[in-house]
Amino acid sequence: MVTASRIRISLRTMEQFVAVAEELHFHRAAQRLNMSQPPLTGAIRKLEEDLDVMLIERSNRVLGLTPAGKAFLEHARETLCQADLAITTTQDVAAGRTGIVRLGYVGSSLYGRLPDVIRRFRAQHPNVRLELREATTASQVTALREGALDVSVLIPPLVNADDIALTPFDIDRLCLAIPKDHPLGQRSDLTLAELADEPFVLWPMNEGRGFHLKVVRLCANAGFVPRVAQEAYGMHAVLSLVAVGSGVSVVPESMSGFRQDQISYCPLSTSEAQFTLALGYRVLSPVAEGFVVSCRQEK
């Protein structure tokens, strides 16, 4: 008797058995499979010999399935369905029609074109799961290298990150943020130089070196070095601290709607206040590449 561990049954053999079991007629089953009858009869006989089990009751014709045949039919159908699913899923993943895209983003990007990009991508790719994770630029670079993120929306320039490919994504500007109840809080023509003696709320340089240095450079051009009273991870945290009077800050203008009842925002007219957000990535899966292509097309 052949042991179960040594039995190898091909998907083609299962397909042949299912055809015979459903047609209950070898000739019709052979026509359905686009083959001649003798090889089909031989394949079913060999299957029964390999299993050492009679699957089909027959005399001069097929009479029906044995209890073992009925059980095998059920599992053969399931196996063929799973095989078809495996093929379809593999092809869909390779074509970028299904899968997961893990997208990191800096907080300010949610106030630009990113929400519209996400909305359109989800509508066009309903079988792709888009996982969103807010993080600083530095944290996203680390996550890209560790394989924890597929694509990032971050703020260049990056430091020691030649392995990260960058594609322009959005444009924003910097503006001033001060508490609403600050003596200067009602000034619409406020300049950065007038905040020289104020305590600043910024983010750690190692979490966004390029962006941090841009703010410091703007202050230097205005004639002072900012006195950092407190640091916060993430722009929402920075603005929340400004709202409670911990200091003033320089933040993305796109976020000027955040806590407007507690924060006054003043634009910076200099061209140096403009900055770019970029898509960052390393090795792209087909579905992640589809997301990047979608971002480029919708600009």
UniProtKB/TrEMBL annotation:
Q: Name one GO cellular component term.
A: protein-DNA complex
Lineage top rank: taxon? Bacteria
- Chain ranges of the HTH lysR-type domain: 9-66
> Could you tell me which Pfam families the record lists for this protein?
HTH_1, LysR_substrate
Listed PROSITE patterns = HTH_LYSR
Entry annotated with the keyword Transcription regulation: yes
User: Is Transcription included in the keywords of this UniProt record?
Assistant: yes
- What InterPro entries does the entry give? LysR_HTH_N, LysR_subst-bd, WH-like_DNA-bd_sf, WH_DNA-bd_sf
Keywords (alphabetical) are: DNA-binding, Transcription, Transcription regulation
Q: What are the GO MF terms of this UniProt record? A: DNA binding; DNA-binding transcription factor activity
User: What does the similarity note say?
Assistant: Belongs to the LysR transcriptional regulatory family.
Please state what the protein is called: LysR family transcriptional regulator
